[in-house]
Amino acid sequence: MTLKLENVQVSIQAAPILRGVSLDVGAGERMGLIGRNGAGKTTVMRTITGLAKMAAGTVKWDGEDISNMQPRLRARLGFGYMPEDRRLVPDLTVEENMLLPAWANDEIDGRKGLEFVYDLMPELANMAPRKALLLSGGQQKMAALGRALIAGRKLLLLDEPFEGVAPALARRISDVITSLKGEGLSVLIAQSELSHSSDLLQRECVIERGEIIRVNVIDPVLAGKA
Ligand SMILES: Nc1ncnc2c1ncn2[C@@H]1O[C@H](COP(=O)(O)OP(=O)(O)OP(=O)(O)O)[C@@H](O)[C@H]1O
User: Fold this and answer.
1) How far is CA 208 from CA 34, 60, 129, 214, 224, in A?
2) Which of the residues 44, 110, 134, 176 has an alpha carbon 20 to 30 A from that of 214?
């Protein structure tokens, strides 16, 4: 399954925020979206989830134009989103937070999702009964990644997954994302800095003031084909 954005334009309060963004993420590819604060990374993510309204352009998933599809229907396609600010509910447990997408959407199998997530991140099984407010910032990022994976079995959108996370935990999160390669899952990772690990990303698009100015090929196999 491939994701394709063509000439996507988004304005917020009449100010142009995305000025014709085109990018594609291949099946099973891990793609970076790199840019400074305010460059438009979160707006790209919100456009893909359907939360930001486009003024022009198209979003295609596996060749189908989904530009006008409701966000909850996109979750059913297997899109998972981890927002930059984590958005955990402090009074709910880690497990309840991860089940939220399934509670909101009948077609998402929460139990099956949890099994997958606990298998991938056993540390989340240990944290499951704890209230989210008792977690460190890095642990909250892990829980938010787990939650994104409950719905996101085809396309995972991760907004600054390493920001403010201590190096050991950042390494762990990076390893978890890299280990998804066998799942055929496409991943788009927004970061303000270049990658923490050379095997995390296969390509990265650089965004500046709402425009993709460059695409770097990182994976040596892909680079050989370029
Ligand atoms: N709701 C909003 N109202 C007004 N301006 C907004 C709104 N949301 C985003 N913007 C503006 O759009 C631009 C892009 O924001 P966006 O959050 O997409 O950038 P970003 O690259 O994700 O940066 P950051 O990492 O700081 O979140 C910024 O200049 C921001 O001020």
Assistant:
1) 9, 23, 41, 9, 27
2) 176
How many whole angstroms from 13 Cα to the centroid of ligand 1?
12
pTM over 0.90: yes
Say what the ipTM of the complex is. Answer: 0.90
Residue 80 pairs in a beta bridge with 156
Distance between Cα 208 and ligand 1 center (Å): 12
From residue 94, how far is each of 91, 108, 159 by CA, in Å?
Answer: 9, 18, 19
Question: For residue 150, how far is its CA from the centre of ligand 1 (angstroms)?
Answer: 27
What are the φ/ψ torsions at residue 205 (nearest 5 degrees)?
Answer: -100, 140
Q: How many CA atoms lie within 13 A of 185 on its CB side?
A: 25
Residues in the ligand 1 pocket, defined by CB under 6 Å: 12-13, 17, 35, 37-43, 84, 192
Contacts 24+ apart (CB under 8 A), 215-222: 215/23, 218/32
Q: Say if domain 3-225 classifies as CATH 3.40.50.300.
A: yes
Relative to the CA of 40, which ligand 1 atom is closest?
18
* Per-domain boundaries in the chain: 3-225
